[in-house]
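Structure first, sequence second, as always.
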């Protein structure tokens, strides 16, 4: 059997653990954080997995906090690129006098950002789950089926056909077929 819990160089208060968490908060990558801390990936996993004797609930919480810090960093960058923009290059006259800057924005990041913060910009697709086979199948109840993405329409058609087949095998053919 290996070392007793807490005797590893990755235990509570260790410099390796602190380094791992700092790197994880900075990069969001587990493997690279282990490498930076000089700890094997499996050693780190044993502190996160309750099936191992090294499991440490405090460490699980510390990892969650580090990942949240990284996520916040990503959110800030999405905001910066989508809302504030970045200076791509300066504009100068023929004498070299700085006239201004060209500021670029990421339309896609702005779109994702607004969808997160304003439900009015999100794609809303809803299906009435109360649709009964006896009422003519799912497709007959969806008035706006053509507005759905192709993949969803195809999935609903397959679902409708499957429900009709089930009804037929049960001796109750749905209306409108």
């Amino acid at each position: 059997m290996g070392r007793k819990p807490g005797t590893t160089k990755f235990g509570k208060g260790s410099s390796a653990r602190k380094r791992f968490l700092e790197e994880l908060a900075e990069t969001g990558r587990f493997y690279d954080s282990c490498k930076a801390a000089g700890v094997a990936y499996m050693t780190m996993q044993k502190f996160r997995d309750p099936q191992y004797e090294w499991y440490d609930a405090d460490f699980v919480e510390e990892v969650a906090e580090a990942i949240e810090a990284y996520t916040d960093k990503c959110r800030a960058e999405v905001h910066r690129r989508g809302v504030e923009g970045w200076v791509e290059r300066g504009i100068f006259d023929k004498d070299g006098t700085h006239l201004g800057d060209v500021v670029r924005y990421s339309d896609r990041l702005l779109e994702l950002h607004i969808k997160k913060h304003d439900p009015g910009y999100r794609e809303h697709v809803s299906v009435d789950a109360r649709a009964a086979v006896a009422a003519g199948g799912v497709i007959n109840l969806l008035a706006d089926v053509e507005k759905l993405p192709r993949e969803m329409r195809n999935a609903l058609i397959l679902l409708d056909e499957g429900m009709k087949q089930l009804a037929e095998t049960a001796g109750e053919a749905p209306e409108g077929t």
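Margin note: Residues 111 and 117 are 10 Å apart (CA to CA).
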